[in-house]
Structures are given as C-alpha cells and as structure tokens.
Amino acid sequence: MRFGTSLLAVVLGFGVPGAALGQQAQSPVPQARQQVPEYRINAGDELEIYVWGEERLQRTVKVLPDGTIAFPLVGQVVAQGLLPQQLEASITSKLQGQYRGQVPQVTVSVVNPSGMQFSVMGRVKAPGTFTPGRYVNVLEALSMAGGPGEFANLDNILLLRKQGGQLKAFRLHIGSVFKGGSNLEDAGVLSSITKIEPGDTLIVP
Q1: What's the rounded mean pLDDT across residues 81-88?
Q2: Three-class DSSP category at 77
C-alpha cells in the first residue's frame, strides 16, 4: 500500500493539535518534522550525567521504577516526565549548597531510552513490544508491528493507557487512512492520529 505526501506529513506531525495537523498535511515534510516533541525521561531509561570538572560526579544511572534517580551529594531526584535540560536544572539547584560560587555545568543525556516501550496486539502482522527510543503515533506504531492484518478492524482499535494509577481505554478510528482516495480532514481522522505514551498497549481487533 502506498501513501501520499499529505499522509506522511500527518504521520510526522503528530505533536500538534488536530487543527494544526490539517495545515501540516498541506506543508512540506521538513516543516512537519519540526513539530516532533522533545523526549521526556521515563522510568527504565539510562542516563549519563556529567558535572564538568568533577570526576566523582560523572556517571551513568538508571531511572528507577518510581521515576527517581540517586545522585551523589544530591540524593534522590525525580527524573520521570522531565526533559533532560529540566533535570540538569534540578540537579544544579540541589548542588548549589555544595559550592561557594557557581555550580559547574551539569549535562544530562539519555543514552538508552529503554523506558519508552509500548505493545501492539491483535490482528497485526508482527505483534509484540517495541522500544523506539522516541515518541511515535498510532500509524507509526502499527507500522512497527508490520502493519494491520487482512481482516483488522481499524475503526475499533483499543488503546489502553495508565493515567493517575488507573487503566483507561480509548477507541481509535483510523480506517479511513487506509482507504485510497479518502479525505483525511473530511473523514475526521486527523484527531485520531494519537501519540503513543510509554506503557501504552494497542489492541487491533
């Protein structure tokens, strides 16, 4: 199956609201790529942290299941949900009491984003658990699972997501995306190009 440039723009433009997606679908692909959100740290990610000029404060740490990391002179620091530069600022602030002057520059890099995992089950060609290392949307998730099976019902996909300690279910309707010649905006499909969150499960009936 072949997709046009407008669909590719939709796939790459998942980080903006539905109305904006409609505009991106008419724009060149490079502009759509600029909308990809920055990666936020997840539990299970491996981080490389450097405090410049301080060998004792240069190490690789793993984000614990509770979303925190342990770092010398600082103790437990919440990392989950933060951008790397936000964690840098948090560590810098907690180190302030250890220095008379300015705290040396702190850098945080995600070296192994293994916490960004999701699963695809049901009528797809290659179901399983995937670790893309970046945010993807529903279409990209299906592509990683080999694409929908022959009798897949793409207008009744179930998305399971943990929110606030509860498991919530959402119905997604993207069948029109796979029908040649359909107008994505008229079909109301744009709002269904949902971003996948860590721990999500897609079930294709």
Answers
A1: 95
A2: strand
